């Protein structure tokens, strides 16, 4: 499953979002964040993002430091904006549309369902809960379990 | 003698009322034709669920067709929340006259320039009607709701009392499948009076309170307003708390509006299947009624309608006519009025009282929102499962509108489209949610923690303010705008500030919000002066107020029931005074909007009217 | 080693005892003799979770299918002296199991004992039966929208075949499940209220205990254009409770679900099989083959029939000659599964080239990838969506919550008198007897 997704995309995404690679792999099973992001921002931008991240890590930076480096607008504004768009995409399933780049859209229902925002707030996307009757009467699992 | 009519009964509209009446009459062996203006989605709901999840704006209409926006090209357009998003801001209202022509071109509901705000609620024109996107709240009205004139000398009395509806409420709760514990509701007796006969039990047990509800309820303890305790009650809900009638128990998908993906919430589709299974009900979809033809003594002889097909943006239509012994309009408070007004060569019928189309009402929603000190973990559980019911009645109703408070389980979603808004703020360094005043840009663990900190504490109260019936809040036919079938679109005149009673209700909601959040956490409610945030301003007792208002989806009052043909359109069986074989179902017959959500009562009245029709036919 | 076998007690182990599976990794199937045909249920998959190995689960499914369809001997046990399909078709082990309606008793009644002869509805006694029907398929004709009624699919409606006949559904369960239900009186509302948690026994490895197992079968009436020698066949009474009518019909098995609870899968393992003549893949419609639920010439008002649409209401299975549902398989069966299908079909045909069992294919196996995920009681099912064209015809696709997911839907099964979870079975959602 998702054999085409490079490891660097997952480690980069993990550093940007604060979620584990395992969670991202589960999301990829029904919503191909990698391919859609590549389609929207171009293979070059995506390659540059991964390369920039990887070389920062190669220089001995932690993944967090490497992510901060990419997000630093004083270094490369375009790249920083693309990275931020990638965060929003993972969190909300919204990405600029190829038809109209000025608006965000949701490529398919599964992207909405897999949005990380709902996990970050210990909840579930509306209309896509996997819980059972009455779960709402008790607090959710610990935040760390959702990451 | 004329030939035998085609059907015993023709029912227009396959929503709550129409489907239930078709089932009752079909089961009694009557031959029924059921017409609906929209398409019949197969009951598997996959298409609607997909449309909802992948839509960018998760508004109440989002799952349902028509998906395009241009009402002049649609055969069965309907009111849409999306249209209110272009309504001018309060400070821009002086420009209404210049903005209106373009607004009216794009909106199915068109407006007069004396309107203050657009009508804020929406409905669906598909088989199943607005039952698709109702919330599921199934409260009985209280005794005073039916007797406002006698008890408080405001508004009007209903030609009915609560006790007259006890049996019909019980039947409605059974058909819908309402989950509640009657003890919870009886505990409100000291505020609301008796609402249940002795020995009554709901079909299923309660849907329990969410963590968030329990947090607010606990922290509100000791607060009072207008002399009544602020306390929460589990809301009776038309959602299963057990497996019943082939439908599963609620799993808290938090999307009751606009769609329950697992059909734990009742909608008309199951009743419609029962109706069809009687073998006596014929359903015609994509059938838009144009007019009724009255004969001698006002008896309606026939009904004319257009059956249409839509393909590639082109609409083809065919005119049909049908005769019956009895005619029933169950097409909602706006479409039913349109049919009456289009009849008799657009001179209208059933209007001796001049009340057709008047007294359009909604529960005006005032939103109070803020953060609680304790994490309540919203965005989990049914969209709303509890409410503050203690202030639905009291002596204060002589001077101000009463309200109930719907306590949400979905954080600030309604208020500011969270968690999406705060997420974008924290990533991009903006501050639309007002939760990122330093305009920080976050990522990774910090982003998770910040998002979690705020969103797990969000709370939203929705005050459903009882709007006073006003003669000038009315629906007429537009002379200038038509739909895709060439039929006139509704012209709406809608104002709020002419009723001091209503305004005092809104002001009381503002005050209560302060009171609650002073105790519970921090009030973030605010007035938004922006396009798409319909708002009013008013002065009470020397104090200026501004408030944004939202719709409850409760469309009420346009063919009120009353005691005679001078003050009302229908009698207390929803029978037209002037056309004795014509019945008008739905909340359009309510003389007042009362303090409960209208669905349960309109279903109860459907059972009552069905008895009248069966008696007529036998 | 990734799949464990049920340990059979007593001396009748015979043929199967030697079967030890040496599968590991993706090359396991290269050695076809690794997976033999045997009458014993596999007990569990030793899972490499999270994520797991899909191939192991698919082999588990096929081993279950073979074991459950093994020729039945005495007392409902597999006849270890026979081999599946040696005579083409055979009566099977699962067909002797308890039917759901047998435990859905009226107030005051008690379910029959395990393996007690089935009572035939009186009206069926009047039927001119051909050579003693082996079973009774019941259906109700009017209650619609039910998660399980015997002509309606879960959360949808009926499937009508190319001959205009309604497909019939049947739900049965094994002795372990039966004992748990009876011992806890879960066939009554009182029993459902009294029990603190419904928790069926799970198949366990390495001890080899068998787990609670439920099967759902879909049958079509064999008629014009159908070749009975291609199907597993049962002559049945088709009984309509509401109309009180009964007919003796020759039914062919077109779909088969197996759900087993195991230690590694508290959300159960869900296997689904179909007959190869059911319907073509969406991507491969240009075919002249005869299908039970698809017609290449199907036209509606001059245009090609829309696939997988519910039939017009009213739905009434007693009416014949109704408009067929045009069915296609929306998602192609994946490569791993196809390879395993070829292997098992080959093994079955090797026993007898006319074996009917070689005409069935595994569509997929859904299992929990992370069974004890505290954030997801469904345990992250894989594949996320799975449908059988005869049982979830109308819910194929990939729309969250609505499209068919075995675990997704069944994790919402509750008692008929409360929101108490029934451990993934909807049988207990239909209990009406008080005590």
Automatic annotation (TrEMBL), chain A:
- Specify the domain of life of the species encoding this protein: Bacteria
The protein's name is Membrane bound FAD containing D-sorbitol dehydrogenase
From TrEMBL, chain B:
UniProt cross-references to PANTHER family, sorted A to Z? PYRANOSE 2-OXIDASE
What region holds the Glucose-methanol-choline oxidoreductase C-terminal domain?
469-605
Q: Which cofactor does it need?
A: FAD
Q: Which SUPFAM superfamilies match?
A: FAD-linked reductases, C-terminal domain (SSF54373), FAD/NAD(P)-binding domain (SSF51905)
Q: Look up keyword Oxidoreductase and say if it applies.
A: yes
Name under which the protein is recorded: Choline dehydrogenase
Keyword terms? FAD, Flavoprotein, Oxidoreductase
Residues covered by the Glucose-methanol-choline oxidoreductase N-terminal domain? 225-365
Q: Which InterPro entries match?
A: FAD/NAD-bd_sf, GMC_OxRdtase_N, GMC_OxRtase_C, P2Ox-like
Which residue stretches, if any, does this entry annotate as coiled coil? none
Automatic annotation (TrEMBL), chain C:
User: What superkingdom does the record give?
Assistant: Bacteria
Question: What lineage does UniProt assign to this protein's organism?
Answer: Bacteria, Pseudomonadati, Pseudomonadota, Alphaproteobacteria, Rhodobacterales
Protein name from the UniProt record: Cytochrome c family protein
């Amino acid at each position: 499953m998702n054999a085409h997704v490079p490891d660097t995309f997952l480690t980069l995404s993990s550093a940007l979002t604060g979620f584990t690679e395992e969670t991202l792999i589960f999301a990829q099973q029904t919503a191909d964040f990698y391919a859609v992001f590549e389609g929207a921002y171009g293979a070059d931008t995506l390659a540059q993002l991964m390369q920039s991240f990887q070389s920062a890590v190669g220089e001995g930076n932690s993944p967090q430091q490497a992510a901060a480096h990419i997000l630093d607008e004083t270094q490369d504004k375009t790249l920083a904006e693309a990275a931020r768009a990638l965060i929003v995409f993972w969190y909300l399933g919204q990405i600029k549309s190829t038809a109209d780049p000025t608006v965000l859209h949701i490529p398919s229902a599964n992207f909405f369902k897999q949005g990380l925002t709902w996990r970050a707030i210990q909840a579930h996307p509306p209309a896509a809960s996997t819980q059972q009757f009455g779960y709402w009467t008790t607090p959710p699992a610990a935040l760390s379990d959702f990451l | 003698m004329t030939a035998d009519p085609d059907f015993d009964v023709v029912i227009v509209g396959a929503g709550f009322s129409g489907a239930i009446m078709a089932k009752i009459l079909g089961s009694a062996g009557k031959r029924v034709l059921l017409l609906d203006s929209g398409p019949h989605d197969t009951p598997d709901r996959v298409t609607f669920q997909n449309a909802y999840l992948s839509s960018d704006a998760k508004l109440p209409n989002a799952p349902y067709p028509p998906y395009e926006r241009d009402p002049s090209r649609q055969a069965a357009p309907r009111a849409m929340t999306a249209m209110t998003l272009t309504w001018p801001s309060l400070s821009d209202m002086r420009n209404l006259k210049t903005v209106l022509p373009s607004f009216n071109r794009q909106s199915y509901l068109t407006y007069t320039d004396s309107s203050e705000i657009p009508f804020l609620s929406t409905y669906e024109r598909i088989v199943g009607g607005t039952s698709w996107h109702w919330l599921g709240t199934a409260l009985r009205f209280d005794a005073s709701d039916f007797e406002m004139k006698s008890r408080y000398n405001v508004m009007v009395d209903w030609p009915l009392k609560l006790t007259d509806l006890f049996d019909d409420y019980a039947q409605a709760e059974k058909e819908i499948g309402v989950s509640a514990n009657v003890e919870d509701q009886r505990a409100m007796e000291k505020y609301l009076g008796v609402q249940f006969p002795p020995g009554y039990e709901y079909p299923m047990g309660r849907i329990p309170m969410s963590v968030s509800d329990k947090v607010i309820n606990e922290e509100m303890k000791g607060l009072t307003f207008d002399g009544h305790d602020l306390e929460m009650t589990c809301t009776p809900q038309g959602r299963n708390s057990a497996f019943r009638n082939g439908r599963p128990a609620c799993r808290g998908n938090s999307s009751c509006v606009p769609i329950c993906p697992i059909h734990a919430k009742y909608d008309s589709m199951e009743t419609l299947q029962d109706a069809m299974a009687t073998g006596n009900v014929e359903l015609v979809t994509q059938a838009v009624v144009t007019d009724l033809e009255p004969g001698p003594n006002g008896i309606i002889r026939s009904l004319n309608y257009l059956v249409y097909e839509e393909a590639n943006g082109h609409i083809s239509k065919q005119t049909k006519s049908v005769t019956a012994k009895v005619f029933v309009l169950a097409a909602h408070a706006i479409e039913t009025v349109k049919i009456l007004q289009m009849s008799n060569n657009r001179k209208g019928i059933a209007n001796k009282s001049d009340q057709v189309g008047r007294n359009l009402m909604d529960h005006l929603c005032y939103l109070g929102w803020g953060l609680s000190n304790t994490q309540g973990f919203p965005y989990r559980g049914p969209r709303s499962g509890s409410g503050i019911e203690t202030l639905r009645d009291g002596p204060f109703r002589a001077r101000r509108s009463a309200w109930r408070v719907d306590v949400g389980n979905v954080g600030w979603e309604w208020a500011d489209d969270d968690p999406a808004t705060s997420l974008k703020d924290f990533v991009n360094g903006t501050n639309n949610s007002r939760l990122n005043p330093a305009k920080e840009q976050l990522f990774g663990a910090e982003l998770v923690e910040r998002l979690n900190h705020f969103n797990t504490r969000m709370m939203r109260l929705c005050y459903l303010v009882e709007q006073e019936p006003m003669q000038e809040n009315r629906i007429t036919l537009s002379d200038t705008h038509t739909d895709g079938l060439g039929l006139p679109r509704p012209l709406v005149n809608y104002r709020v500030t002419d009723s001091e009673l209503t305004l005092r209700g809104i002001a009381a909601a503002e005050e209560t919000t302060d009171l609650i959040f002073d105790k519970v956490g921090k009030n973030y409610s605010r007035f938004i002066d922006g396009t798409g945030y319909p708002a009013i301003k008013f002065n009470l007792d020397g104090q200026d107020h501004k408030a944004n208002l939202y719709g409850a989806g409760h469309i009420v009052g346009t063919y009120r029931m009353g005691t005679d043909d001078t003050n009302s359109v229908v009698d207390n069986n929803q029978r037209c005074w002037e056309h004795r074989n014509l019945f008008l179902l739905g909340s359009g017959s309510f003389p007042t909007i009362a303090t409960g959500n209208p669905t349960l009562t309109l279903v109860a009245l459907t059972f009552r009217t069905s008895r009248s029709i069966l008696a007529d036919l036998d | 080693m990734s799949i464990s076998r049920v340990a059979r007690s007593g001396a009748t182990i015979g043929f199967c005892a030697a079967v030890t599976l040496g599968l590991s990794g993706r090359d396991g199937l290269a050695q076809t003799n690794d997976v033999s045909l045997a009458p014993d249920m596999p007990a569990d998959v030793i899972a490499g979770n999270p994520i797991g190995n899909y191939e192991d689960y698919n082999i588990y499914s096929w081993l279950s299918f073979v074991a459950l369809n093994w020729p039945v001997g005495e007392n409902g046990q597999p006849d270890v002296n026979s081999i599946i399909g040696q005579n083409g078709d055979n009566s099977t082990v699962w067909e002797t199991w308890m039917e759901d309606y047998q435990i859905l008793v009226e107030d005051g009644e008690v379910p029959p004992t395990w393996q007690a002869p089935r009572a035939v509805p009186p009206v069926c006694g009047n039927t001119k039966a051909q050579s003693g029907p082996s079973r009774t398929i019941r259906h109700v004709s009017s209650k619609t929208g039910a998660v399980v009624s015997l002509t309606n699919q879960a959360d949808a409606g009926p499937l009508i075949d190319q001959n205009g006949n309604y497909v019939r559904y049947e739900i049965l369960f094994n002795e372990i499940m039966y004992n748990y239900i009876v011992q806890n009186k879960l066939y009554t509302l009182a029993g459902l209220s009294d029990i603190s948690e419904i928790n069926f026994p799970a198949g366990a490895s390495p001890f080899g205990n068998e787990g609670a197992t439920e099967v759902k079968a879909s049958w079509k009436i064999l008629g014009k254009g159908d070749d009975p020698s291609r199907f597993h066949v049962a002559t049945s009474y088709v009984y309509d409770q509401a109309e009180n009518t009964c007919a003796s019909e020759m039914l062919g098995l077109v779909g088969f679900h197996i759900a087993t609870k195991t230690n590694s899968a508290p959300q159960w393992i869900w296997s689904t099989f179909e007959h190869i003549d059911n319907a073509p893949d969406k991507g491969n419609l240009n075919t002249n083959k005869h299908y039970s639920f698809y017609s290449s010439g199907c036209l509606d008002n001059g245009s090609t029939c829309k696939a997988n649409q519910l039939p017009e209401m009213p739905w009434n299975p007693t009416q014949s000659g109704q408009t067929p549902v045009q069915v296609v398989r929306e998602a192609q069966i994946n490569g791993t599964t196809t390879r395993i299908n070829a292997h098992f079909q080959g093994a079955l045909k090797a026993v007898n080239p006319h074996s009917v069992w070689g005409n069935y294919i595994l569509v997929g196996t859904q299992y929990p990838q992370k069974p004890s995920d505290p954030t997801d009681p469904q345990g992250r099912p894989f594949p996320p969506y799975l449908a059988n064209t005869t049982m979830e015809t109308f819910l194929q696709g990939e729309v969250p919550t609505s499209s068919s997911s075995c675990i997704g839907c069944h994790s919402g099964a509750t008692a008929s008198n409360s929101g108490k979870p029934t451990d993934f079975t909807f049988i207990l959602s239909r209990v009406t007897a008080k005590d």
